Amino acid sequence: MLRGARVAILPDQDLAGRRHAETVRSNLARTAAEVRVLELPGLGEKGDVSDWIAMREREGRAQAEIRRELEELAAAAPAAPPAGPPPRAPAAGRPSRVRRASDIPPQAVVFLWRPYIACGKLTLLEGDPGQGKSWIAAALATAGSRGQGLPGAAPFAPFRSLIFTAEDGLADTLRPRLDLLGADCDAVLLHDQPLDLAQVDDFAEIEQALVEHRPRLVILDPIVAYLGAKTDAYRANEVRAILAPLARLAERHGCAVLAVRHLNKSRGSRSIYAGQGSIDFTAAARSVLLAGCGADGEVERALVHIKSNLAGVGPTLAYTIDEQGFRWAGASSLRASDLLAPEASGNDLSSLDEARAFLRSLLGAGAVATSEVWAAARHAGIAEITLRRAKQLEGIVARREGYGPGGSWRWSLGGAPPATGGEG
């Protein structure tokens, strides 16, 4: 009956209702042309669509007006990604995963905050410590709880946010900030327990929270705290193994995932290389935001949109943080290069110290091919001469493994005599 239809599911507002809605959504994924799960604003716990309509009728609204509002809310709800037709298994071997483009219905990108944050996608928020990244995250959750307050955006249907934090206390930091910003704290969900995205049970805990609470914005602050002790943030394959499932999770549940990341102390020449860890963080994200202030340390700070795969780059936005809290402050003339300019501070690690720490982290799990070391160093903004000095001071050993075209040079931490000749 629903084959090819555009379906809106209106769940009862309790755990059983949300789980049933998720089951229905999953069952319709390969049948309906479009499936949306609609959370009705203002509906109390255990309420349903009949209660919502009754509330509107008591307010004296006409049936046509109620229907129009319901249709508008349904159109604004995130659409689950189409599953497409089931693949046909070949006569023998692995089933084919190739799909014809004509079998995939085009789907418009749904933005949580155009053009900065899209639903169903991964966004990075980067910046130095103390520049207000967590304040920005709290401001986004606050705006979502109230249905207003996002710069450049008209009022919208309120939504829930889920914040995973590994640095800020819930009672003494996050709750006071949300209160100061004027958030509806019933619409902001918090989680401060350790999680490792590489562990199946921990990843399942996150997905279960999405099924039960249906947040439209999920924040991981900071992302490196959720990579797990065994994941090397500078290795592209290990970073991809974490971020790819996270991106699929966002797509599956139609929520925006905002991952907070600190910057390197040694800056590269381009802003997309400024974040800590592998460049694959930036490659996996569909949008990247850079927060900070100029080198002169002025009170005005700025949020710069430095990467966008889904729309044009948005205007740079000013914000302030003082004893009264966080406030958006209109447009800013600051650029990414202003935010990344070196500061005159004696408290930062020197470039050489940063390079030595980089080598200890990269080589801690074992030998790494020389080409990979140089590539990771470039992504981290470490100069060649600095890396060579750090290599010498750390006692890094270079050895050739294998012979002929199949051989390669590899760097490892001390413990073997250095190789001779040829290696750069």
What does this structure look like?
The chain has 424 residues and is of the alpha/beta class. It has three domains: 6-84, no CATH class; 111-340, 3-Layer(aba) Sandwich (Rossmann fold), CATH 3.40.50.300; 351-412, Orthogonal Bundle (Arc Repressor Mutant, subunit A), CATH 1.10.10. It is 33% helix and 18% strand. The strands form four sheets. The chain has a nine-stranded mixed β-sheet. β6, α5 (170-181) and β7 (188-191) form a beta-alpha-beta unit. α4 (133-146) crosses α5 (170-181) and α10 (351-363) crosses α12. The radius of gyration is 25 Å and the shape is globular. Residues 344-348 and 416-424 have low confidence and may be disordered.
Main attributes of the structure:
424 residues, alpha/beta, Rossmann fold, Arc Repressor Mutant, subunit A, nine-stranded mixed β-sheet, three-stranded antiparallel β-sheet, 12 helices, 18% strand, disordered C terminus
Secondary structure layout plus pairing:
Elements: E1 6-9, H1 15-28, E2 34-37, H2 49-58, H3 63-76, E3 111-113, E4 117-118, E5 122-127, H4 133-146, E6 161-165, H5 170-181, E7 188-191, H6 200-213, E8 217-221, H7 236-253, E9 256-261, H8 280-284, E10 287-292, E11 301-308, E12 317-322, E13 325-331, H9 336-340, H10 351-363, E14 368-369, H11 370-379, H12 384-393, E15 397-401, E16 408-412
Parallel strand pairs: 1-2, 5-9, 5-10, 6-7, 6-8, 8-9
Antiparallel strand pairs: 3-4, 10-11, 11-12, 12-13, 14-16, 15-16
